[in-house]
Design goal:
4-stranded antiparallel beta sheet, single chain, alpha+beta, elongated, 5 helices, 3-stranded antiparallel beta sheet
Amino acid sequence: MAAFLAGCGGAPDGPAPEETGVPDAIASTAPRPKSVVNGKVIGTPMKDRVATIGLLNKRNNLTQDLVMKPGDSRRVGNVVVKVAACERSAPWEKPVEEGAFVQVFVQERATAQEQLAWRKVFSGWLFKNSPALNVVEHPVYDVWVKKCAMNFPGEEESPASEASDKSASKPSGSARTAPAPTHSSSAAPEPAASPAAAAPEPAEPAN
């Protein structure tokens, strides 16, 4: 009996989680893309799409964006977010929707007596415009989809160019500070204008 119990409890433990990486035990198979026509994926290949996932830690109310490609995993403290797929509705489809197949793993104790272990708390599609369809239910973490960068035939920009456009928009925001010197320079001629306005005053007595 003891040998039987030893055999049952002798299953090899998973690798110890490393604080700098995602545990090897967390893995999944990406679902079949929805943008398939006649057996072919249309639009940006899945591996080149870029998903932006929002992550909220309810303990400290800190929110951060995780920018990942399908197949990527990101660890933040004791939570791991994995993106398996990313989809956006085609321009000719209504209603417009963006989503991603997301898995969320949290390192926590099931009971106070048990040791920390990785537990899958969510696995499924999350949608940007329909967040109520699927919700990550966890007391500490909230996860949602903010964007799926991909394109379809006829759309010239690529996900990479979209990212560059965003970075290019930052200087335009800083360029908004440029009118400030222009405004100050327009204020500078005002003192010069007042002497010019004072010039006609001596001419009035001459009349």
